[in-house]
Amino acid sequence: MALPTIVIDYSVPGYQGLLNNVWNHFIVNDADSGVSTYSTNGGATGYRCSYNPGKPNRCAIGIFDTEKKLRWNDSVNALLGYDEWREVLQSMFAEFKLDLTSGTDHNFITDLQKAHDKSAVGSRFGQMKPKKTFKHELKVALITLANNYDLTIPGN
Question: What is the count of structural domains for the chain?
């Protein structure tokens, strides 16, 4: 199977646009997750996400890093905690009309990333019983996210 090309559609602003892109990349185009490692000593999350591992499989935030500015193994929360990285993230999401200084927008980005990471880690490292695929787990997580933020799943 050929690796999917990352194509970002900026035609729908806001959270719906972000959800649409993540859904299309991972669910429709069947892209693999971008979580690269798992460690019980990896802080509160225990995993590290690949923003730019040099190939198309990236995390839910990494697919928006079209200029390849993010470091490969930082969490979104860690990046939002530093002014220099917050500005990079702000520029990545400017087309979607987000303000990452806003608690609500910050929360959505974090929740979107968590949906990806928990699905990837659970499926890749056998933490889900019975073991499910990344795509299945992410689909469930994104539907939950859509319900929580009053969004619609693309194609529904």
Answer: 1
| CA dist., res. 62 & res. 72, Å (int) | 9
The 3-state DSSP class for residue 49 equals strand
What is the amino acid identity at position 63? I
Contact 56, 80 (CB under 8 A): no
**Are 65 and 89 spatial neighbours (Cβ–Cβ below 8 Å)?**
no
Q: Using 50, 70 and 90 to split pLDDT, how confident is the model at 10?
A: very high
Q: 115 in a domain, yes or no?
A: yes
Dump pLDDT digits (tens) for 122-145. Answer: 655 555 444 568 888 899 999 999
The model's pTM is 0.81
Q: How far is CA 19 from the centre of its chain?
A: 9
Residue 6 placed within a domain: no
